[in-house]
Amino acid sequence: MKKTGKFFAFVLAFALLIASVPVLHAVAAEDVFTATLMGQLDADVSDAVEEWGIGDLEDASVDFSIGQEAIISMTFAEPIKFTGNWTGIGTNIPVLSDADAESTNAVITAFVVDGNDLGSREVPLIDRDEAGYLTIDIARQWGGDYDAYDLAGMDPFSSIEITFIVNNMPTGVEDGGAEPEIAVGGDVMGGNAWIGGTFWSDEEGEYYWVEYPEQSVPFEVGYPFTVVLDFSPGTNTHDEASFGYISVVQTDLDQPAGLFDVFVHSITTDGNAVRFEPDYAEVGHERGIRIPMTNVWSDTPMVDGPHRIGEFSRLEVTLALVMYGDPAPVFAEPITADIDTGDTDPAPEPSVDAVEDATDATADGGGPGIIIIVIVAVLAIGVVLFLVMKKK
Taking the alpha carbons of 82, 84, 89, 90 in that order, is the dihedral positive or negative? Predict the structure, then answer.
């Protein structure tokens, strides 16, 4: 009986520990942002890293949370040097303006080059290129005149370690301190949406950037809508132009991209579902808010290439643009047409029960309660193990 009790206690403790891992991971993943060191390197000093390639290196990025210090630490096989023209730490924290970026009170607390700590120096906090995201701007000679750490005059170095902290979430103000006026047409924000991209152009005689605002549809932020590009009874083809390829849902909503999230429900050509990665959906700004589908310049395009769309008569995209942090709205029933994946044996979709169970487990307010239960259970198991060992 002693061996049986001990074995049972061990199995129970191990099972609860394994079960708690995904819960703890899900809760820990909340409110985690990413920062990346980027900038122009001096190609005359070293070509070991491409001139604008430092941000592509794995060590250039770090995950961080508001109010907690984070460190970007990098070493190089041979000495490199920044030009000082532009260097900064880009983040995915959405901001409305430079004033909004300043409201985060982000600070560089240490700047260590080859073991020499240059300390904490004040640097601008900006909405870089009005893209809608916080950037800790270390040096800028294009559109600015500052270089707090004298990167332009710095000797080549083999290691760099930057410690920083973002103290607050942005307060949501435009330049001048006023609350943003984001309503378009009364109390509801919205506009018109249409499809553009590299399609065959009879006028150019080649694949070229073309957009079709004459087929625009009205939409409201927070509500699903469907935008259609219809060539029937003829066809057109989405393919690569001389400069690359891209297809987008374009809008005339002229607001910072960082204000929004997007949820894409379906993409179809002639009633057949197009394979895409909904987690890769993102909001950009070019002549208004736009949502890229294919994009040769993206490492994680939502649709992995123009061949997925190809030749068609009717292209439809159902999506919803929502305010940043808002949940996805309720869409209609999912598309039932076969998905053209190009794979012979597509992976099976997860069951509805499995998705609902996973959603319930991580619902707002549910995570901390589950953790408390797990902690209490682990403590109880500890008491059982103690009594078993004591009895033995």
Answer: negative
- Cβ proximity of 182 and 259 under 8 Å: yes
CA distance 49 to 42: 10
Instruction: Give the span between the Cα atoms of 46 and 162, in whole angstroms.
Output: 21
Residue pair 82/128 in contact by the 8 Å Cβ criterion: no
pLDDT tens digits along 235-255: 999 999 999 999 999 999 988
For residue 238, the 8-state DSSP code is B
Cβ distance 144 to 44 under 8 Å?
no
Assess contact for 82 and 52: CB atoms under 8 A. Answer: no
Query: Do 114 and 127 meet the contact criterion of CB atoms below 8 Å apart?
Result: no
Q: How far apart are alpha carbons 306 and 177 in whole angstroms? A: 43
The pLDDT tens digits of the residues spanning 73-121 come to: 999 999 999 999 999 999 999 988 888 899 999 999 999 999 999 999 9
Residue 356 reports pLDDT greater than 90 = no
What is the pLDDT of the chain when averaged over all its residues?
81
Average pLDDT over residues 379-387: 60
3: left (phi over 0), alpha (psi -120 to 50) or beta: alpha
**Is there a contact between 225 and 289 (Cβ–Cβ < 8 Å)?**
no
What is the C-alpha separation between 101 and 107, in angstroms, rounded? 12
Distance CA 138, CA 151 (A): 9
Q: Find the Cα–Cα–Cα–Cα dihedral 129, 135, 140, 143, rounded to 10°.
A: 20
Burial string for 125-152 (b: 16+ CB within 10 Å, else e) reads bbbbeeebbbbbbbbbeeeeeebbbebe
- The two most distant CA atoms of the chain are separated, in Å, by 89
